[in-house]
Amino acid sequence: MTTTHDQEPVPVATGHLDGPPRWSRRRLLRTMGLGGATVLVAGTGALSYRVYDTAALNPGSGPAFDPWTQWRQLPGPLGAVACAVLAASPHNTQPWYFALGPRSIDVFVDEARGTGAVDPLRREQYVGLGCAVENLVLGGMARGLAPQVTWLPDGNEAGRVAHVELGSGQAQATPLYDAIGRRHTNRGPYSSQAVPAETLAELVDPSGLDGPTVHWVVDPAPKAALSELLVDAAEALTRDQQQSRDGFVWFRNSHDEIQRHRDGLVLDGQGLSPLLLGVAKLLPASSRSDGDQFWVNQTRTVHTATAAAYGVITSTSPDDRRTQLEAGRLLQRIHLAATSRGIALQHMNQITERIDREATTGAVATFAPRFAKLLPAGERPLLTYRVGYPLREARPTPRRSARTVTR
Q: Which of 104, 313, 127 is closest to 206 using CA atoms?
């Protein structure tokens, strides 16, 4: 989530699809990583424009970020939707819209908000919808609405994925609800501190869910094997031109783009240090190929190198739509529980993206057999994430408002 599930991060943006600029963001970041950097500026006018164009001095500002501070303020069903829009989704596509009735909320999939070949079976899209429903339920409970979820009331492939009946009851603001506004995907480095096994177990609450389970990968050998598989999948994805292009279109570069679209992946969400983030915003956007290489490098040197543990949500029927929706609810609970305990989480779904891509193109299955060796017999992977204690806080990413997505 991407996501869902935001797992594919690179500090790039739209534009510059052909040749990279002389000084791309990736090149400067690489140089600074070696111990220093020289910033070449064509003139003070150009620098001033980049400061303005990327909001370098005021990151995370503007209406696109207001939902993160206003979600508690809206009452009733619209307030529950305000919680839902802050859920995880693949590439921050926010593939949902909501219909408010007198005593109900219907949740619909917005099929136009997909990632194409990155998610060819729409596995991650439905997981993201499940994440939104979990936040919706938490927001409804906190407002005394007693929400009750019915999945797929019109069938597995219909546009309405959930009907949420509303009643009345005592308002219940749980620790997971309180974490909604602080939950962000953290793509930065994690500390070497291990997450205790009992803490990992406490993050998982499958109550009311039927199907998905969680498998933790913590021992050195399987963790190293999964790390290698994640790097290999990232490399394979970037070599796949269609997957690379379909992922790249969701990157937002300028402040204007962010405020206009209010979705997608942005530099603020890439886990960079304040210094590197500021410098990266002042430079021209990287090319798609440079951005792909940066992501592979980050996957190898930061994401997998500093993961304290991996979590894999599995099922015997990962292609079933209801299972995917319930996996999303479970994933959102885990992320909120982690946030409430000061634990970072990053979605890393490139392996299952390659599994689905190989299945839909008729290619020889290479990633499914390797992943199967790391999981309990009969269980198949739905999604993957890493956890650990963060070295820096994650930043919010843009969101469409509750009113924007309500019909």
A: 313
Residue whose token pair is 């620790």: 175
On whether the CB atoms of residues 128 and 90 are closer than 8 A, the answer is yes
Q: What is the pLDDT of residue 18?
A: 31
Which uninterrupted H or E stretch holds 389? none
Specify the residue for token string 């969101």.
Answer: 399
pLDDT in tens, 80-108: 999 999 999 999 999 999 999 999 999 99
* All structural domains of the chain: 25-388 (3.40.109.10)
Burial class (CB in 10 A: 0-12, 13-18, 19+), 19: exposed
Tell the residue number behind the tokens 């299972």, with chain if given: 323
Residues 6+ apart with CB under 8 A from 317: 211, 323
Determine the pLDDT at residue 380: 97
Nearest to 160 by CA among 210, 107, 202, 229: 107
